[in-house]
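Internal ticket #5521
Category: modeling
Description: The requester needs a full-assembly model to guide mutagenesis choices. All entity lines are attached below as received. Residue total reported by intake: 814.
Assigned to: D.W.
Attached entities:
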Amino acid sequence: MDKAAITFQDVEGGVASPIGFYAAGGSADVRKKSDKRLDTGVVYSLIPCAAAGVFTINAVKAAPVLQCQSLLESEGRIHGIVANSGNANACTGAQGKEDAAAMSLAASQACGVTDSSFLVCSTGRIGELLPMESLLETIKPLGEAAVAGAKDNESFGKSILTSDTKNKVCTAIFEIDGKTVTVGGCAKGAGMIEPNMATMLAFITTDIDAESEQLKTVLQKAVKTTFNAITVDGDMSTNDTVLLLANGESDVLLNAESEALFQEAVNQVCDSLADKIVADGERITKVVEILISGAANEGDAENIARAIGNSLLVKTSWYGNDPNWGRLMDALGYAKAKIDQDTIDIFYDDVPALEMSTPVPENKPKWKEIVSKPRFSIRINMHQGDATYRLRASDLTEGYVDFNKSE
Amino acid sequence: MDKAAITFQDVEGGVASPIGFYAAGGSADVRKKSDKRLDTGVVYSLIPCAAAGVFTINAVKAAPVLQCQSLLESEGRIHGIVANSGNANACTGAQGKEDAAAMSLAASQACGVTDSSFLVCSTGRIGELLPMESLLETIKPLGEAAVAGAKDNESFGKSILTSDTKNKVCTAIFEIDGKTVTVGGCAKGAGMIEPNMATMLAFITTDIDAESEQLKTVLQKAVKTTFNAITVDGDMSTNDTVLLLANGESDVLLNAESEALFQEAVNQVCDSLADKIVADGERITKVVEILISGAANEGDAENIARAIGNSLLVKTSWYGNDPNWGRLMDALGYAKAKIDQDTIDIFYDDVPALEMSTPVPENKPKWKEIVSKPRFSIRINMHQGDATYRLRASDLTEGYVDFNKSE
């Protein structure tokens, strides 16, 4: 598969880019600050969609996560998504479940759809009931705008943000047999960002013609190495959700011929959104790519990468531009992986710090220079086997602590 | 067993308190700052001791840890301990192992002991060779002072500190059959503090008459609920070591009659030192006791406590005096334990925040008051079984990040 066959737009478009998808965002004042902040959004497709989702594996799941899972399991077609930020509708008991169902129904009615086939997503504060009256009032005109043809990627993208500082959208396009397939994406991240999802929502839409089971396979493959391979603070949230909707309006079938191109397009969209999430982590200053090789097996490679990427001492040293390989050695030592402490190579970008566990101190000025950059990589070869893993992590700053010390 | 049968001195005495134990501390300028900071210490017993140790389970082990493990496995008697701070002698290869052996030999020679039977401990920076010349020069007079009868608990205690702000010593004494048994302890902690040891050293001496195997059983029991049940930053170090030495000079045998009292005395010493370590964590402002009950099994109870105690979002909220039970629910949800999200009780001290997962918002002012204290407890009942776990954790502050951003 030729990656160049995909036209990738890194900061353009979004969920309303594929043919037949519409989107709008508005304000329901979920945060009760009367600041007109965008906090409610609707995505709509006139043609009902095949759909797939990947969700948090946190045992405490928010009501909208349960609603999405139940709707996808019922195997009906999906008309769209209704989402809000500012309140996660998590730990809200029976009332929370009723509220999620009511949001779905309100979106269906606003779009003139007879059955309740809207997926629901919420993100924000845990443990408080949604302000349903203003939410329902807001969903109605947004649904009507979507039906009327609104393709407002920007206001929809903004409506799902919480502590994010940037709107996160992208689009991948490819041609096949003279027809064009578009994959549009939109995400939010910022805090509670750790493997197996985060306080993150990501919505991906496409006009390819596919079955839900096919979408599920494609989405799971893409998520594994993108959304599930980033960490900001190691906290896995109650609401993490990635959704993929396909309405078939391109007239291109997802089949043996188109499969590789479509997978690559979805991969690129997920990779771009995942990178935007980690790069916009709360008050971070650096994105570090941790590349483990030579591990005994993939589980070991992942454990090593995560031990490093979640170590407070490692993350604070990155923040301080300190190439502290001793803290890397300490973290990989407790990763519960097969390790020979005498056969480890560590590189900062391409500059060796340790070769077969022997320091290369003459390179220290170069390590220091590399660690001072806003993006760099740490490559570690364990010499235990052939397994590899790639994790993108952020540093930890005083700003993160200050930002999170109260809500 | 009557706890009151133990006379406990929380901030007095130390490793030289039991009969026949001697100690001294001096400066070898390990940190090369020419500031005369105490950084080298010797503990000595004229009568060779039975001994036991508990060590880091980090796969990357420092040279002195390997030296101690090997010496204890050889089942010889032990004459004492030689320790330094400022340099961990970790990730130092073959030279590091030679240096650890040379420290042991130097202490033996200084004390006039013919065989090399001194345990060695180092703590501090990883990846640099020890300044052996000045260390060996410093060990000699310290050994001689110990042989001459020095019982300098204070200078020995200070010599092992790194980023600690306080000397950590205590003593437990009990009487049996008209004879007195003393257990003295000394520790250092501060950073890389997480379960299964930390960048922590703890030395416990006693004049009871015991076999090494007996000491091992007593020490492992005591460590499990004390040193292994604290967390500051979740980083487990390469050097963590707890040693217990017994020289028999009290003429009290460790047997069925004395066993319970001795175990309790060692428990109290370990508990006091562990508490001092977490309370003196790097730039912390709070110590929080996490008490899990009603878990399906002990592993689950421990996983839940650790998920909460190591969550950055939970720790920063404590720092900000924010009783954010939503973050507690989020953390326990990813603890990989058996959980029913609808049957959870959460208390701040004795004030309920959640009962069967239903918030008790009228108590909010009280939670806020409790979380603002320098010490408080969080009690969580999972209603899944009978298992319990207790973990002491600290908050996370901007000061921690600032302190650790470079060495």
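Resolution: model delivered.
Comment from assignee: Confidence is low (pLDDT under 50) at residues 193-198 of chain A.
Ticket closed.
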